[in-house]
Amino acid sequence: MKEKVCGNLLIIGGAEDKKNECIILRHFIEEAGGSNGKICILTVASEVEEQMGKMYVQVFQRLGCTSVEVVHIKDRKQAAEKQTVKALKEAKGIFFTGGDQLRITGLLGGTIAEKIIQEAYHQKKIIAGTSAGASAMSDTMIIGGDTDTPEKDSIKMAPGLGLLGGAVIDQHFSQRGRIGRLLLAAAMNPLILGLGIDEDTAVHIRDNGVLTVLGRGTAMIVDASSTVMSNVCETGEQRPLYLSPVTLHVLSEGCIYSLTNRSMLNS
After folding, report:
1. Catalytic site includes residue 69
2. Catalytic residue check, 174
3. What residue ranges define each of the domains in the chain, with the CATH number in brackets?
4. Can you give the pTM of this predicted structure?
5. Which long-range contacts (C-beta less than 8 Å, at least 24 apart) are formed by 15-20?
6. Is 131 among the catalytic positions?
7. Which residues form the active site (predicted)?
8. pLDDT tens sequence across 144-174
9. Which one from 49, 135, 154, 172 is the annotated catalytic residue?
10. Is residue 235 very low, low, confident or very high in pLDDT (cuts 50, 70, 90)?
11. Are 42 and 137 in contact (CB under 8 A)?
12. Nearest Cα to 120, choosing from 214, 36, 32?
């Protein structure tokens, strides 16, 4: 399955550094045009949107971006308001905060705001998401599930924004022990890649399908396409997952990986 990548995505595993070097957020600013760029912060995932928006405005301004606008979308009607549409159209970079990924798809899906985000994606504008904002970028997103021994019914999934095809994303990855549920997600559809991203870590995916890792942690890629033995489709008594073989790629800062070829390009 060829991964659908035709935009410019910065997918962050959550809890990115906001006080010190801020490598990931500085990278986002550079991709959005630097000090002359215009950033639109979408707090739609958060239930404390005012607090969340204010925090990111302060961080981005401290890092040198003078044009930062926050858009709060509390209901689907607001997703069509003139101010929302204007902010999204004028933005050179769009940033999704954390919170609940179902709020992103539930409040944006099928709206004018979502259409403009898709247009921005095809125009190669940088679109970033952290935590829940990261999970929502794929065709199908993980919305919950146990993080211990993976069992068939221990994961919940839902449609995402569809900016990244052929992959499913999990965040706060090592910190919350989510390898089990990512393996289960990959087992449920071996054609897709599982992408798990640690906190203060990001992957930058360009329109050629090449992924580069930034930050202090790791990104893990689960490739179950070569699996020949799995019990994920078995019915009856619930059993822990078995899956063999499965390929794991563990990537750290500076590592480059081709989503299209499913191979590492350097180390």
Report:
1. no
2. no
3. 8-266 (3.40.50.880)
4. 0.96
5. 15/131, 15/172, 15/175, 15/199, 15/200, 16/130, 16/199, 16/200, 16/202, 16/215, 17/200, 17/215, 17/216, 18/55, 18/59
6. yes
7. 131, 172, 199
8. 987 678 887 789 999 999 999 999 999 999 9
9. 172
10. low
11. no
12. 32
